[in-house]
Design goal:
With 215 residues, this protein is an alpha/beta fold. The chain has a domain of 140 residues: Vaccinia Virus protein VP39 (Rossmann fold). It is built from six helices and nine strands, in the order H-H-E-E-H-E-H-E-H-E-E-H-E-E-E. It binds S-adenosyl-L-homocysteine.
């Protein structure tokens, strides 16, 4: 089967699994996932599974990417913060659905590689930073939407809640330990943070601080 045929099969699978937002489906359809996975997994790029990337991290399962994107209720003027750039795939899916994506990664090598992909694909509304995403991106706050793509151990990081726009800002984040995580959706109105539990998931952990890497 060709990449295109695989991709159509994946989109149909996402629809059947409850991804009803046509804008989200077309964003997934536009992003060539084969460019975000290691070459050795090229033939599995359109399987609905998470795959390993460098530094022991993972590119999320397409269903989870689509689900979290749908839950974020994006709009064309939205300013979005993503924590955990990884391969850059999730940021690339967000890109056509909002005004600007600010994405933070603690591994410099992953951030660089993702940035190259954004450039190659002409995704000029994505801005990258190497840093500790648990601290958010204070200079750019507030954000209309925040998505965390690594699991917070026990609660939603306070700095991220504070950087959420206070009239209807939405944050999605997996919360929980290694075995029992759930996507939590937080909606902010003033000082009220309304939390709902959405979907059981399995993400790599959110880790404090910038990563030490050999050059
Ligand atoms: N959104 C990514 C998923 C990557 S996996 C994609 O589409 O490919 C989660 C990523 O979060 C990993 O790359 C990991 O290094 C990063 N991460 C974990 N803790 C972090 C932190 N405190 N700040 C920034 N990035 C973090």
């Amino acid at each position: 089967m060709s990449d295109q045929a695989h991709k159509i099969r994946l989109i149909m699978e996402l629809r059947r699994s409850g991804i009803t937002d046509t804008q989200v489906l077309s964003a997934v359809e536009r992003v060539p996932r084969e460019l975000f996975v290691p070459d050795t997994f090229g033939d599995r790029a359109y399987d609905n599974i998470a795959l390993p990337i460098d530094q022991g991290q993972t590119i999320s399962q397409p269903y989870v990417v689509a689900y979290m994107t749908q839950v974020l209720e994006l709009f064309p003027r939205a300013k979005v913060l993503e924590i955990g750039t990884g391969s850059g795939y999730q940021a690339a899916v967000l890109s056509p659905l909002c005004r600007r994506v600010f994405t933070v990664e603690r591994f410099r090598s992953l951030s660089r590689r993702a940035e190259e992909r954004f450039r190659a694909l002409g995704l000029t509304n994505i801005v990258t930073r190497v840093g500790d995403g648990m601290l958010g991106w204070p200079e750019q706050a507030p954000f209309d939407r925040i998505m965390v793509t690594a699991a917070a151990a026990d609660e939603v990081p306070q700095a991220l809640k504070e950087q959420l726009r206070d009239n209807g800002g939405i944050l999605v984040v997996p919360v929980g330990d290694g075995v029992a995580q759930e996507i939590v959706k937080v909606r902010r109105n003033g000082d009220t943070f309304e939390e709902s539990r959405m979907l059981p998931v399995r993400f790599v952990p959110l880790v404090k601080g910038v990563a030490e890497e050999k050059r």
